[in-house]
From TrEMBL:
Chain segments annotated as transmembrane: none
UniProt keyword Nucleotide-binding present: yes
Protein family: Belongs to the Mg-chelatase subunits D/I family. ComM subfamily.
Superkingdom of origin organism: Bacteria
Lineage per the UniProt record: Bacteria, Pseudomonadati, Pseudomonadota, Gammaproteobacteria, Nevskiales
Swiss-Prot/TrEMBL keywords: ATP-binding, Nucleotide-binding
Pfam families assigned: ChlI, Mg_chelatase, Mg_chelatase_C
PANTHER family in the cross-refs: COMPETENCE PROTEIN COMM (PTHR32039:SF7), MAGNESIUM-CHELATASE SUBUNIT CHLI (PTHR32039)
Protein name per its UniProtKB record: YifB family Mg chelatase-like AAA ATPase
Family annotation (SUPFAM superfamilies): P-loop containing nucleoside triphosphate hydrolases, Ribosomal protein S5 domain 2-like
Domain MCM C-terminal AAA(+) ATPase span(s) in chain numbering: 291-386
Length: 503
């Protein structure tokens, strides 16, 4: 048997945000023609033999009439999708000496093949590019994934459009790295907070939430501006740094939607419908996929009509809100996904929406209102830092002329938010909302009067230890916005007012 009947090509599988190395071994042996794939391939990988055969033949190359065995090592790592098509095709061509095997030694290969030989994009190109750079190899991948892959620090990528053209380049010599495309991020179409009339308390709470990374619950009748306020939160947030931008882009890269390179450096905003299942929100499936909480990583997750979500869906949020990550476990595999998102929710005060309104009469009985609000558990409410009422504005204020000059814009508020966030990062290297309980005593300084106000309120309203800690974190953010090194009585009093709805 010729030594050239065996070829090895490096590739990578996808398991959550991990891009595990896979070695594609191709062996040609005498015997009846056939092709078998071993190494725990899933259905889409097993079907690649038909795509690979058609692509090789349609590009003018010979598909060997021999017994072909393809091993995807390690054998205990599940492999899914069409991402190994290109590696398998190049391995077959190298083993049959139609292309030089030496040209593949320092590269990793990813790409799905069309029957015509065109190379289609794959998901997870960015995490694979990061790992390939760490391993000291270049990454050969579809042209459509080039911009995404070059976002990885120190990554060298080789883009290809068609299998036939790629093989011709390999026959001429080693492949040259592709020039990174010029990235032109799309300007973020900011929805300005000045567009929201009135609602001064709600705007203040939104500023506090943005500055400290706090979660927020808005309660008010239909049409009071809750959704408008939530949509304006991403523009108030500080821009992500390079490491955070890379993590946000990596999450988008493995999603079904993929990553749009024009969105580089922008925080995500996710607003799933209240009919979303627990799997859609948290993630899951036989092949673990990220849910909405992971797709909102580094940005905002907005749940409108909060009580309309299924109870088990809402309860699934409790652990990610505390830990900032979610683990999806299945019989054959486990995947960890980041989930550090800013949680914003909105709800009506009652099923009809008009409880407490001065002009509209509520049709709900007290028992019905109680059952409606009980759809949100106490432990979940306890994990939300800011609770505010968003009342309906009088018709005269809505229909009158807008006094835009007296209303702060997103740019003005964002400047204060960034300044306050910088103070937090210098003090503790994290936003106030992420401070651990054991850090509060050493990093947060309360005046004696502020501490007394906290103790009296907690005793009167029977606050849990978690609620007290969250109130202190909010007060620390309010003090940062006021450029105060110490939490003052007014800061603590304002922070406690934002817990009145859940007390």
């Amino acid at each position: 048997m010729s030594q050239h009947s065996l070829a090895t090509v490096h590739s990578r599988a996808q398991n959550g945000l991990q891009a595990d190395p896979v070695t594609v071994e191709v062996h040609l042996a005498p015997g009846l023609p056939g092709l078998s794939i071993v190494g725990l391939p899933e259905a889409a990988v097993r079907e690649s033999k038909d795509r690979v055969r058609a692509a090789i033949q349609n590009c003018g190359y010979e598909f060997p009439a021999r017994r072909i065995t393809i091993n995807l090592a390690p054998a205990d790592l599940p492999k899914e999708g069409g991402r190994f098509d290109l590696a398998i095709a190049l391995g077959i061509l190298a083993a049959s000496r139609q292309i030089p095997h030496e040209s593949l030694s320092d590269i990793e290969v990813l790409g799905e093949l069309r029957l015509s030989g065109a190379i289609a994009p794959i998901r997870g190109a960015l995490p694979a590019a990061i790992k390939a750079a760490d391993a000291g190899r270049r990454l050969l991948l579809p042209l459509d994934n080039l911009g995404e892959a070059t976002l990885a620090p120190a990554a060298e990528a080789i883009a290809a459009e068609r299998l036939g053209d790629l093989c011709e380049q390999l026959q001429r010599g080693p492949l040259a790295s592709s020039e990174p495309p010029t990235l032109e991020p799309t300007p973020f179409a900011q929805a300005d907070i000045a567009d929201v009339r009135g609602q001064h308390q709600a705007k203040r709470a939104l500023e506090i939430a943005a500055a400290g990374g706090h979660s927020l619950l808005m309660v008010g009748p239909p049409g009071s501006g809750k959704s408008m306020l939530a949509q304006r939160l991403p523009a108030l947030l500080p821009p992500p740094d390079a490491a955070e931008s890379l993590e946000i882009a990596s999450v988008a890269s493995i999603s079904r939607e993929g990553f749009d390179v024009s969105r580089w450096g922008q925080r995500p905003y996710r607003a799933p419908h209240h009919t979303a299942s627990a799997v859609a929100l948290v993630g899951g499936g036989s092949d673990p996929r990220p849910g909405e909480i992971t797709l909102a990583h580094g940005g905002v997750l907005f749940l409108d009509e909060l009580p309309e979500f299924q109870r088990q869906v809402l309860e699934a949020l409790r652990e990610p809100l505390e830990t900032g990550q979610v683990t999806i476990s299945r019989a054959g595999r486990q995947a960890d996904f980041p989930a550090r998102f800013q949680f914003v929710a909105a709800m009506n005060p009652c099923p009809c929406g008009w409880s407490g309104d001065r002009e509209r009469e509520c049709r709900c009985s007290p028992d019905r209102i109680h059952r409606y609000r009980d759809r949100i558990s106490g432990p979940l409410l306890d994990r939300i830092d800011l609770h505010i009422e968003v009342p309906r504005l009088p018709a005269a204020e809505l229909s009158g002329p807008s006094n835009a000059s007296a209303t702060e814009t997103t740019t003005e508020v964002r400047a204060r938010v960034i300044r306050a966030r910088e103070q937090q990062l210098r003090r503790s290297a994290r936003p106030n909302a992420a401070l651990l309980p054991n850090e509060l005593d050493s990093l947060v300084e309360l005046s004696e009067m502020a501490r007394s106000i906290l103790v009296q309120y907690a005793s009167k309203m029977v606050l849990s230890a978690r609620a007290m800690h969250r109130a202190v974190r909010v007060a620390r953010t309010i003090a940062d916005l006021g450029d105060s090194a110490q939490i003052r009585p007014a800061d603590m009093a304002e922070a406690l007012r934002y817990r009145a709805l859940s007390a």
